[in-house]
Amino acid sequence: MILDPILIVGIAAALGAALLGALFRRAGRSAALGGGLGALGGGAGALLFMLPLNFCTFELARRPEDVFLGMLLIGAGMAACLLPLHWWFIERPSQRRVPRAIQGTFKGWLTPWLLLLPTLTVLVLFLYYPFLDTFRLSTLIVQPRARRTPFVCLKNFTDLLGDPAYLRSLLITLIITAAIVVIGLIVSLLIASVAYQPIRGAGVYRTLLVWSYAISPAVAGLIFFLIFNPIAGIANHITGNLFGVRLEWFNDPNLAVVAVVLASVWKSLGFNILFYIAGLQNVPNDLREAAAIDGANTFQRFWLITVPMLSPITFFLIVTNVTYAFFDLFGTIDMMTSGGPVGATTTLIYRIYQDGFMEGRVSYAATQSVILFLLVIGITYLQFRTTARRVTYGA
């Protein structure tokens, strides 16, 4: 070992004691109590991830990348233990001192927990336990039909983060996700603004607009594969007749990305339009009428009144569309491009399929699954910490 486990836990406990003690002192609470709780939380946080791994990242034979990942895990474990203590002893009492006029709150703690029990049970069985088991697989070398599964600590993670092909897939995923979110929300809002108008037969064409949400990503991929087929696709028929150009949609990397983005935007269009139409029905007309009296034109009323009033729905759609782009593109990509050409549409979720099912590298695929899961959680957390502050609720 480079560092003794007892020394590691001691350092984490000392850091936790110093941090929580300072926070308690700033909040006017007992610094000794904060230091004691911080020492317990810091020590428990160090053990949270390191104990199952037997402190393997700090062994003498490990690389500097392994040591760095071990420190990150210790930091994450300390945060997981210290943040609840900080909330329970500092933030919760301060929230109780502030009078709140919120109706519909529960008087006791038992009823809300009973109502949450079915959801928590589903999350534990189908999310948290599979995640922990996948993390266990990521610390092993697992091969199909192999009897031995040697323990390799976090070597799969360090190898993966140094793999240029994986980093390229990460960049491709971020580019495709950004394109889907930006293009999808803009087009959906414009269509919803037109579909919102009170005209005869509005219910019929609104239904036709949102029906694409009912089909699966694989079916959407098949439809757009037929549309962009280089030989018999309608896209090349149109470009050939109008411009005399027939494009190789699935042989050109840039065009393949464009085709996947268009298919994904169309697939999520109905979902976005449905929520934007519901939001537009709740925008007060008196605000737009007052702006019109003050001299605001149509664009100014839309940009300064309608868009801010729709910010809660936009924030919700950003989160759901990002999740869709990270996880649900597999069917679309598999039907259209199979990750090609030359890996141009190989996103993170499709690389997991390639490594795990096509190449038989189960532990490598499990490592990618863990990273993808943590990446989506991190992006969602950043969205709540940044975008949510610009959300306006109410008039």
Report on this structure.
This protein has 395 residues and is an all-alpha fold. Helix 11 packs antiparallel against helix 12. The longest helix is centred in the N-terminal third of the chain and has 34 residues. The protein is flat and about 75 Å long. The protein starts with a helix and ends in a 9-residue tail after the last helix.
How many structural domains can be distinguished in the coordinates?
Answer: 2
Give the second-level CATH assignment, the architecture of the largest domain.
Orthogonal Bundle
Instruction: Report the span from N to C terminus.
Output: 60 Å
| Alpha carbon gyration radius | 26 Å
Order of helices and strands: HHHHHHHHHHHHHHHH
How much helical structure, as a percent, in the residues?
over 70%
Strand content: under 5%
Quick check: average pLDDT? 88
- What oligomeric arrangement do these chains adopt? single chain
CATH class of the largest domain: Mainly Alpha
Number of continuous helical runs: 16
Structural class: mainly alpha
**Fourth CATH level, the homologous superfamily of the largest domain:** MetI-like
How many E strands? Answer: 0
Low-pLDDT segments, ≥5 res: none
Shape: flat
Largest sheet data: none
CATH topology of the largest domain: MetI-like fold
Q: How would you sum up this structure in a few lines?
A:
With 395 residues, this protein is mostly helical. It folds into two domains: 1-98, no CATH class; 161-390, MetI-like fold, CATH 1.10.3720. The chain has helices at 5-26, 31-53, 64-97, 110-138, 155-161, 164-195, 202-210, 217-227, 234-243, 253-280, 285-293, 298-309, 311-327, 330-336, 348-358, 362-386.
